[in-house]
Design goal:
The protein is mainly alpha-helical. It has one domain. It has helices at residues 3-18, 23-33, 45-49, 54-65. The longest helix has 16 residues, at 3-18. The radius of gyration is 10 Å and the shape is globular. It starts with a helix and ends with a helix.
């Protein structure tokens, strides 16, 4: 996993927190359904997450939850 992926993921999580959402819940919802409305548009989080590999997102999400 690259540092760039981690930075992008952290940016997405930060944007979700700033918008008042729980990053773990929102990203989990996105992974389960594929519905981008789980991810905020602020901070370009929505456009960033679609560029990431789902496997990397899952690994980084597991780190976020621990």
């Amino acid at each position: 996993m690259s540092d760039t992926s981690r930075e992008i993921f952290e940016s997405i999580a930060s944007s979700l927190r700033e918008a008042g959402y729980d990053p773990f819940s929102q990203i989990t919802g996105y992974l389960q359904t594929g519905d981008l409305t789980y991810i905020t548009r602020s901070g370009d989080a929505r456009s960033l997450i679609v560029k990431m590999d789902r496997t990397e997102i899952q690994k980084l999400l597991a780190e976020l939850s621990s």
